[in-house]
User: Fold Ig-like domain-containing protein from Astatotilapia calliptera.
Amino acid sequence: MFFFIFIAWIEMPDSVSLKNLSAVVEGRQFAIQCDIVNVAPARNLSVLWHKGNKILSSQTFDESSPSPVSKSSVLTLTAHRDDDGAEIWCEAKLNLWPEEQRPLPVRSEAHILTVLYQPTFISASNETLDLPAGKNILSCNATGNPLPSYHWQFPQAAQETYKDQDVNYPILTGPFEFPGVYTCTASNSQGTVTKYFTVNKPPGIGPGAIAAIAIAAIVFAIICTLGVIHRKCKR
Ligand SMILES: *[C@@H]1O[C@H](CO)[C@@H](O)[C@H](O)[C@H]1NC(C)=O
Ligand SMILES: *[C@@H]1O[C@H](CO)[C@@H](O)[C@H](O)[C@H]1NC(C)=O
Ligand SMILES: *[C@@H]1O[C@H](CO)[C@@H](O)[C@H](O)[C@H]1NC(C)=O
Ligand SMILES: *[C@@H]1O[C@H](CO)[C@@H](O)[C@H](O)[C@H]1NC(C)=O
Assistant:
């Protein structure tokens, strides 16, 4: 008889389920609820929260009722991009003695976390390259959720050359012949980031050199003209 009563008072939950599941934005706090329906004895219940292969927390309940009751556990977390795609679930178990008599724990289904975050360049800093460029690609690759979309802008002089390039691809392929600033933006619903690639003219054919050549040409022309006039005058 005693044995019968003892058995009757142990009841594994009818269900263990998660609630409040939605995409979360990086940096924000969010809560997931685990509902354990009809468990006894509730004071021997512990609820474990799992994320991947880690146990995040466990909760027990102060409950004197020997008959089945329903309990909820709420996990509060701050959304981090590293948790995007991570599996989270809760597990209900009864800590009964002797241990051999413990029923198997009951798990909720796993929820896959979706964390939204703004694009972040894989290589963050702006870049500078000198012509003639040894480097043949400019990379704007960024991580982000949703996946970022890209857009390139070229210096005026380069527009004709790159008109066939896909301005919405993360990588711009050279050769780079035109100095100026090449701008790439990566954007998604969470934000837009911009990276600048400055392509410098080869040394020696800068504006200084061009001006010097132009002045020399003008001086030469003047001397020539004067020379012609002089010779004409002489005649
Ligand atoms: C469920 O989510 C809403 C909105 O994010 C929040 O206000 C509420 O507290 C959450 N409920 C639980 C039980 O975590
Ligand atoms: C339930 O837990 C209490 C301690 O909290 C323990 O004394 C008791 O033996 C447990 N019940 C069973 C049936 O194992
Ligand atoms: C890149 O250059 C822009 C404009 O000059 C500047 O605002 C930004 O801070 C720079 N970014 C980095 C990572 O240095
Ligand atoms: C950058 O993106 C391109 C196109 O999506 C991809 O082929 C390449 O492997 C990426 N590079 C890096 C370093 O992630």
About this structure: Residues 1-5 have pLDDT under 50 and may be disordered. The chain has three domains: 2-113, 118-203, 207-235. The radius of gyration is 36 Å.
